[in-house]
Amino acid sequence: MFVLDNAINLVDLENLYQHILALEGEKHSIDSYDALIQGARYIKEVCMNYGLDVLEYPISVPGFKKDFYNIAAFLDISLKSEPAILITSHFDTVAGTPGADDNASAIAIMLEVARIFKTLDYKRNLIFISFNLEEWAPYFQQNVRAIGRANGVYDTKFRFTSYRVKKAYEIYMQLLRSNIYTKQHLDDDHFERFFNKVSPLKLSTSELQFFAELNNFYIKQGEYDPLGTSFVLGSNTFAQMASTSMNVKAVINLETIGYTSKNPHSQTLPSGMTLEIFEGYKINEQEMIGDFASIFADENSGFLAKTFLKNAQYELIDLPCASLTVPLNYSSIKQNFPDLLRSDHAPFWKHDIPALLISDSANFRNPYYHTGGDTIATLDFPFMKKVCQTTIATIIDLTQG
Predict the structure, then answer these.
(1) DSSP of 115-182, one letter per residue?
(2) Options 3.30.1300.10, 3.40.50.1820, 3.40.630.10, 3.40.50.1000; which CATH number does 2-134+234-399 get?
(3) Within 13 A of 213's CA, how many CA atoms are on the CB side?
(4) Is pTM, for the whole model, over 0.90?
(5) pLDDT of residue 223
(6) What ranges do the domains of the chain cover?
(7) Residues near 280 by Cβ (< 8 Å), separated by ≥ 6?
(8) What span, in angstroms and rounded, lies between the C-alpha atoms of 177 and 31?
(9) H or E element: which one contains 356?
(10) How far apart are CA 327 and CA 366, in angstroms?
(11) CA pair distance 142, 200, nearest whole angstrom
(12) What is the pLDDT of residue 180?
């Protein structure tokens, strides 16, 4: 217990705050490319200052000449042939958001975990990776924007020109998300449902044309799995490589992990889920209070979920958690619970590599998710400290013996 207690006591809440302070700000693949690269440089420089070995892994992005890459920092690169544990995050944001929760919160925890294990001179193959292009791919965004400008629904800053179009787009995306993992578009039935839902908004002819052309654009992309082409490009590239050239024991993916609420009914869940199906520690199922870490594993990753949940309950940590191991493989999860694939763990599940998603549950709790309100002022730093400590304890547990 001495090594564990020493390690978790090293977690410095001030370090978490300073990392997010440095990283907060839009880092969008098209609108703020320079800031995106500056964010990558920050992560790289911090890791190098800690004494880690840092490599860049390029990402191929069709139609773009700019460089996109992932950052991997090795605790000890001389151990790279040994079984690896990956601790991951992503550093890009959606357009128009400062991204303090999504995803500077995760980067901050990842960097603090890296610092502590280097301080301890821990001799294991730990790799800290921050992925690029977790959000929508540049190619898709560029085409959607062109369609929008042609039909007058976007202004020069790519904001919707009317509230009714904004509302209609939200409805369209809700319907699209319900079947995006089986189709890249709305089929006839879903599009008819969309048309009926937006009828009270009295969209103009050109506004309706925008949605028709948008849907046709998605249809032209074909019937394929959008993971790795529409989003999570960086982690998909890395997971493909890792599946053939690395011995990955486990992936701990940190995603949007800084927001909590003490208000009753502040927590919601993906369709078809209730808290009763989760294994919980100090969660309020009746009042649905959003003050816990959400843990998700697939059928290959249940041992990771059990290890994380066990360590969350350690008396010196005491992190409320809701843990769910879905007894399905990637293909079945994308058919039944597609919301569980919305981060960088998903490509590893696709390649049968054990991976864990640790999150505050994003839009199922945080009202500022993907908005300009996602700022450092909204985050719960003591909660983040506990997540950081639990991650450290889980790594020690997985690497001992």
Answers:
(1) HHHHHTT--S-EEEEEES--SS-HHHHHHHHHHHHHTT-B-TTS-BSSHHHHHHHHHHHHHHHHHTTT
(2) 3.40.630.10
(3) 17
(4) yes
(5) 54
(6) 2-134+234-399, 138-220
(7) 292, 320, 321, 322, 323
(8) 24
(9) strand 355-359
(10) 27
(11) 29
(12) 47
Predicted confidence at residue 367, as pLDDT, reads 96
The set of residues, in sequence order, having a beta carbon less than 8 Å from that of 392 and lying 6+ positions away, is 4, 7, 8, 11, 113, 116, 117
Residue 233: what pLDDT? Answer: 96
DSSP label at 69?
E
**Average pLDDT of adjacent 10-residue blocks, the chain of 401 residues:** 89 98 97 98 98 97 92 97 97 96 98 98 97 93 93 93 95 72 68 91 96 86 71 96 97 98 95 90 95 98 98 98 97 87 96 98 96 97 98 96 62
H or E stretch at 250: strand 248-255
Amino acid identity for residue 292 in this structure: F
**Gap between the Cα atoms of 52 and 264, Å rounded:** 43
Single-letter code of the amino acid located at 313: Q
